[in-house]
UniProtKB/TrEMBL annotation:
Keyword Transmembrane helix appears in the UniProt entry: no
InterPro entries membership: Carb-sel_porin_OprB (IPR007049), OprB_Porin (IPR052932), OprB_sf (IPR038673)
Secretion signal, residue range per the UniProt entry: 1-35
Source organism (scientific name): Acetobacter orientalis
Single GO term (MF): porin activity
Keywords: Signal
UniProt name for this protein: Porin B carbohydrate-selective OprB
UniProt key word Metal-binding: no
Length: 493
């Protein structure tokens, strides 16, 4: 994913730097006409994001429509670009198979088509550093994880409910030479917050918006494929440091915390624009640094890294994991079944993205490491701790300079209240004997650049303790470890 990849894909690492604010100070002098956080096409992808070789600085590349399937579209793209208009369309096709374990062997298809329109306000209206963005999704297929695997962590970010929907709709304005910019509208927070650049390369959805947030927040929070009304501010007080904060509605689909109706069924068009429920506050501090030059001096090969600390606080009402509204154990036959609701909830996290080896100065042959740790409130959340880690290898294979290989692992640990509920259920005889145990998932993936606009990614995943239990609490039967094989094909038009 270097010079061989299309414009929209091969610069996704700079895109991630932009999306997280790490290149804002550098970008301010190189792209004066665009707001500091211009999203490229890959910001709309929840997983399987291509990774070019990281660089210690960012220079926005020139537009090159010839690297996309439709090319210059008879000159239409070039004309639109002169007017400040950019349109990107991406298509993702996936097939997943379960040769062993899980609940039902077989294969399942899912897919997505995404379109994003961006308007630069300077050529259109003479307003410098303004950007309008609107995007939409068409999600299709069936859920492999729900129907065949039974795991807590879905095998792909595209393993979502079928819908044709609005994704994001916002306006952003840059100030102070783009060292400060403000975005307002309907926002998807997982394109900027809690992001690990290298983790996003993997297909399992937990490496994007993790289980700790998707299961502990209403409708999974403002995360793909949902967005929520709110605003985000980003400030670069000094070149290595970026500070971000966001305030949004905490319930994108306006539903209860527990529901038999899926979030995509509740809001199939993405136009609910909910103001129901609580307010979600999210903040993050980010530090960009070059470890090699810090330790070995300016002549050492660059080893860029990104280190982040962040957290969120939700003012909404969250169910206790063990007790009902009357103070009775939820697992008791005498329980009303309606949990006690607490006011407020918090989650904290840390993210490291670090290049740890480079063959030579300016070489594209690199090894990159990532780690992400998450902690959450023990009484309100089913999962209190989560950790993911992995490596990506660029230019590892001879004669394949544009390909990347990755290996990663992740797990989520239950909160004390959730474990106590399981023990209560067995002790009081309201379920088959079982205990909660962390689900572990491993992923080995290979991303190949077949053409400048076509990415093919075969993928292998292995799940231990599928569903996070020793056995199914409703049947008492054990769910065997899952072996998953898949293929992702992404095309940029």
């Amino acid at each position: 994913m270097k010079a061989f990849l299309p414009q929209a894909l091969r610069f996704v690492t700079p895109t991630c730097l932009l999306a997280t604010g790490l290149g804002a100070a550098l970008l301010a002098s190189t792209v004066p006409s665009w707001a500091a956080t211009v999203p490229l096409a890959t910001d709309i992808l929840p997983s399987g994001v291509p990774l070019p070789v990281p660089a210690p600085s960012f220079v926005r590349p020139p537009e090159d429509s010839s690297t996309e399937l439709l090319g210059h579209a008879g000159g239409a793209r070039d004309w639109l670009a002169r007017q400040g208009v950019s349109l990107t369309i991406q298509d993702v096709e996936e097939i997943w198979g379960l040769p062993a374990g899980g609940t039902q062997r077989g294969a399942t298809y899912d897919g997505m088509t995404a379109a994003a329109l961006m308007l630069d306000t300077q050529p259109l209206f003479g307003l410098k550093n303004g950007l309008f963005n609107i995007s939409a999704l068409q999600i299709r297929g069936r859920s492999f994880t729900a129907e065949r695997l039974g795991a807590l962590n879905t095998v792909s970010g595209y393993d979502a409910g079928r819908s044709t929907r609005l994704f994001e709709l916002w306006y952003e304005q840059g100030f102070l030479n783009n060292h400060l910019n403000v975005r307002v509208g309907s926002l998807d927070l997982d394109t900027e917050f809690l992001v690990s650049q290298n983790a996003s390369f993997f297909l399992n959805s937990s490496f994007g918006w993790p289980l700790s947030t998707s299961s502990n927040l209403y409708s999974g929070g403002p995360s793909w494929p949902f967005s929520a009304l709110g605003g985000r501010i980003k400030w670069t007080p000094a070149q290595p440091l970026v500070l971000m904060g966001a305030i949004t509605d905490d319930n994108p689909t306006q539903g209860p915390f527990y529901s038999t109706i899926s979030p995509t069924e509740r809001d199939p068009s993405g136009t609910t624009f909910s103001t129901h429920g609580g307010v979600l506050f999210m903040g993050e501090a980010q530090l960009w640094l070059d470890m090699a030059r810090q330790l070995a001096g300016p002549d050492a090969p660059a080893l860029p890294g990104t280190w982040k600390l962040g957290g969120l606080y939700d003012t909404g009402r969250f169910p206790d994991q063990r007790y009902d509204a009357n103070g009775t154990l939820l697992a008791s036959p005498d329980s009303s079944g309606a949990p006690y609701y607490h006011h407020g909830n918090w989650i904290l996290y840390a993210v490291i993205d670090q290049m740890i080896w480079r063959k030579a100065k300016n070489s594209g042959k690199t090894i990159n490491f990532f780690a992400r740790a998450i902690a959450a409130n023990q009484t309100r959340n089913q999962f209190a701790f989560e950790i993911q880690s992995g490596f990506t290898f660029d230019e590892l294979l001879p004669d394949r300079p544009d390909d990347t290989i990755g290996i990663a692992w992740g797990t989520s640990l239950y909160s004390a209240q959730a474990r106590h509920y399981a023990q209560d259920s067995v002790r009081l005889g309201t379920s088959q004997p079982y205990s909660l145990t962390p689900e572990h998932h491993f992923e080995l993936t290979y991303q190949a650049a077949v053409t400048p606009y076509l990415i093919v990614q075969p993928d292998f995943q292995y799940f231990m303790h599928v569903g996070g239990t020793t056995q199914d609490p409703t049947t008492g039967k054990r769910i065997h470890n899952g072996v998953v094989a898949g293929l992702n094909i992404t095309t940029t038009f």
